[in-house]
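Lab meeting notes turned into a lecture example. A postdoc, R.K., suggested we walk through two folding results consecutively so the class can see how the record format repeats. The first protein's sequence and structure tokens come next.
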Amino acid sequence: MRAKSFLIASVCAALFAAAGVQAAAPKPPRATQGTTVTLPVTASVEVANDQAVIELYVLEQSKDIAQATTKAIERAAEGLKQLKALYPQAELKNQTLTSTPRYSKAKEGEAPEIVGWEVRQSVSAKLKNVEQAAPFVQSAQKYFAFSSVGFQLSPESRAAMQDQLVREAIKNMKAQARVIAEAMVGQNARVTYETVDFHNAAYDRPVTYRMNADMVMAKAMAAEAAPALPVFEPGMTTLSRNLTAKVRILPKAKARVKAPKPDNDRPRPMHPIANVN
């Protein structure tokens, strides 16, 4: 009797163990539904340039390189001092100091010789008020020659526009996804967003004016007149923000039909109780 009970218990244990292993087996993955679409999206906005960057220089020539260098540095320092007094808000900086040898004309059978030096001291001026660019250039012509005058967006303005560009890019992404979904599935299409990757912000090159300041100064000195007030147009800068979105387009899910709730207030039918004799 004990042997029979032990055998029955062993069989039951084996059956329960097999059922547990079967229940723990992983379910096969569900098939992916819908269609995946990759969307390249761009948002752009035009902003008025609010910063002027002016490149200046002085040029000295001498047979002695040390003498030319000293004069170039002194002239640049004096010019920056005068401009700083007139425009205290301007950001003025010394940039590069370069020297270039001047050679004699080559003679037959002889190598050209260094007969002098040109030393150039470059400086830059940054103005946060673009309306000051023209009078600044007019004042600077007394001390400097010009390389270029450019207008651009300040870093603060570029940073301030990033939130607007992000919102605009997301808005454009949703609009594109909706158009594609309706074209593929219809009005009842559903859109889910799987990934959204933002790329680096971009902006157009600044507006740059290049002028021959030496010619302008020579004409002014010849006419014994003050340097003329130049005319500049600061222009606009276009900021852009790009993203790539991966979306899934699905048909609209069918509404589930809910089972009616039991009506507890409805009277239940009464059944007669049979008499048992």
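The second example is placed directly after the first for contrast:
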Amino acid sequence: MVNKLFQRVDRVRRSTIATVTAAMLVGLEPAAAQACAELRLVPGGVVTQVTDGDTVVLDSGLVVRLIGTQAPKLPLGREGFPTWPLAPEAQKALEDLALNRPVTLGYGGEEVDRYDRALAHVFVATEENTTVWAQHHMVRQGLARVYSFPDNRHCLEQLFAAEATARTERLGIWTDPYYSVRAADRPAEILKRIGQYELVEGRVLLADRSGSRVFLNFGRHWKEDFTAVIEAPALRIFADAGLDPLTLDGALVRVRGWVDDRDGPRIEVTHPEQIEVLARP
């Protein structure tokens, strides 16, 4: 089985930024350093608070969301919001790594979200005089999933590899049914996860274009079965990357995203990295 991310086939050429990045990330695993070679790095300061498994606060007051990952969520004052399984463990793991440690921030896309949080990769300077990429560390321990955006797509290849290893080794969240990879041929089970971020795996029965959209249909009853939908803006991102989702006809894939219910359970795909190709016919 081929476990290959359906992402850009063109290779971004390495520039002066790559050299600077490599020099700043002394001690970081070489493969991870290469994956993040295109980031704009800036000194971040010292971590004074770890809010949850994917958010820290710096001594400047800056709140940093660890872009590219989603850790189990805590209520954080939200009434009626449940604590996700392993959320306290994820918070503690990031706290053990980063609290009271200096960090470097790496920006590779949109830099601030609507909550005024910095969207950055976080590199922690450890007492052993090494640098640890916080996102990779959390995903590799099975305490976060890969969670990407169309305007923030750097450094994902290594994160996907780390997630795959953690899932194979059944670490952290990968032992809990709450985070199980859902089967595309069981739409009733996926419907129970409406409003949740899920990974869904199955074979594309038909990849079809209708107007400005592409539908990846995973069953014969298109108004009941699971579907991945790619809208026009996302199709432009696919085209810019030299990718055609219609070639996924018959492929075994893993799709990740937020589940909604529009003529059966579906996930809207906004960029290629939401689809991993596991095997082609």
